[in-house]
Design a protein that fits this description.
- The radius of gyration is 20 Å and the shape is globular.
- The strands form 2 sheets. Strands 1, 2, 3, 4, 5, 6 and 7 form a 7-stranded mixed sheet that branches.
- By secondary structure, the protein is of the alpha+beta class.
- It has helices at residues 7-23, 26-33, 41-49, 67-81, 87-100, 103-114, 219-252, 264-290, 297-325, 337-347, 354-365; strands spanning 120-123, 138-142, 145-155, 163-170, 173-180, 186-192, 198-211, 254-255, 258-259.
- The protein has 3 domains: 7-119, Butyryl-Coa Dehydrogenase, subunit A, domain 1 (Orthogonal Bundle), CATH 1.10.540; 121-211, Butyryl-CoA Dehydrogenase, subunit A, domain 2 (Beta Barrel), CATH 2.40.110.10; 219-365, Butyryl-CoA Dehydrogenase, subunit A, domain 3 (Up-down Bundle).
- β6 and β7 (198-211) form a beta hairpin.
Length: 372
């Protein structure tokens, strides 16, 4: 199986790397981290004007049609630079609307996202040991629309988002619903996360919404699968960026008249990081390949969970090792590698940690249903 990038994906990678290297500097990151929304709107606009956000979206809505593969390339670069822009929630939501939304929903949401003037986010998590595929939030039909009741936890980057995709239980199974972020019955409670992102808890009290796809159909599994891959892609970049910091630090720092990089114990630590990152990358791109035609939902679900487990386990191990080999400077919150540690830690618990991933994977392998 060939996981090498084609010309279009290489172009996305190279352009994203150039923009993020230039814009996501330590000074700029500190500035954004002290802002109310914690989102670099200037960088978001730069990525949009360069066509990088549109590259992921379908061609008929102003995109280049690169889909999940293009998203993962873009997210790896974001993770490498720990750039505070809400790419994964906005674009996983957009790809799901593109696949399952009505013509009106696609026309209303996707062109604005492509040019950077519109944004949406996703509400997948709930308090307690809730399974993303079995939400406790509920939705009931109300005429031509729906009403939603429940609470969603740590919705990523709601600032600037006009719509939110909410998973909710219905009589026909889990459904996906599109609600306005300022609609009646919608309220937000700010919640700062480990990464300094300003997320929010979302309370829904009879909030009006539109169904995306048929409740009990494929929209919710599609969004959850895309979210798993998106988080894995960001984590690959975070781990690679952390390893790069470690390599530079160990080449420059000396002890007993020798660079720290020449000590065998340190070399073994970085070798373990490299092995974990390669395993993360291989499982990620195997999962991306599994989404291609002919599509096999159980195989794609298994591949996505394997990629997420490796991102959770290998990514967390990598940022821990990197911080360790930096010594005392690694816990200095002003030192750049500390952000990679925070991002790696946050991603490792988003949508469940390693234990939850293994439980879900075990259920799939055994042929059972995943439940809350």
């Amino acid at each position: 199986m060939d996981f090498s990038l084609g010309e279009e994906l290489e172009a996305v990678r190279d352009l994203a790397r150039e923009i993020l290297t230039d814009r996501a500097t330590p000074e700029r990151l500190r500035e954004v981290e002290s802002s109310p929304a914690r989102v670099d709107e200037t960088l978001w606009a730069d990525l949009a004007s360069a066509g990088l956000i549109a590259a992921v979206l379908p061609e008929q809505y102003g995109g280049a049609g690169l889909g999940t593969a293009g998203l993962c390339v873009l997210l790896e670069e974001q993770g490498r630079h720990v750039a505070p822009v809400p790419l994964w929630p906005a674009l996983t939501g957009a790809l799901t609307v593109a696949a399952y939304g009505t013509g009106e929903q696609r026309s209303a949401l996707l062109p604005g996202l492509a040019d950077g003037t519109g944004r949406l986010t996703v509400a997948l998590e709930e308090f307690g040991p809730a399974e993303p595929l079995a939400p406790r939030t509920t939705a009931v039909e109300d005429g031509a629309g729906w009403r939603i009741d429940g609470v969603k936890a740590v919705v990523p980057a709601p600032a600037g988002a006009r719509h939110v995709l909410v998973t909710a239980a219905t009589d026909d199974g889990p459904g996906l619903f599109l609600a306005g972020t300022e609609a009646p019955g919608v309220s937000w409670e700010k919640a700062e996360t480990t990464t300094h992102d300003m997320s929010a808890h979302l309370a829904l009290d009879g909030a009006p919404a539109e169904a995306v796809g048929v409740p009990g159909g494929g929209a919710v599994p599609h969004l959850v699968r895309e979210a798993y891959l998106a988080l894995a892609a960001v984590q690959v970049g975070v781990a690679e960026g952390a390893l790069g910091h470690a390599a530079r630090h160990l080449r420059e720092r000396e002890q007993f008249g020798r660079p720290l990089a020449t000590f065998q114990a340190v070399q073994h630590q970085l070798a373990d990081c490299y092995i974990d990152i390669e395993a993360m990358r291989v499982t990620l791109w195997h999962a991306v390949d599994a989404l291609a035609q002919p599509f096999d939902a159980p195989a794609a679900d298994r591949a996505a969970l394997v990629a997420k487990w490796w991102a959770t386990e290998g990514g967390l191990n990598t940022v821990h090792r990197v911080q360790h080999v930096h010594g005392g400077i690694g816990v200095d919150t002003d030192y750049p590698v500390h952000r990679h540690f925070l991002w790696g830690k946050q991603i490792s618990t988003t949508l469940g940690g390693t234990g939850a991933d293994l439980e879900r994977l075990g259920a799939l392998v055994a042929g059972g249903a995943v439940t809350a």
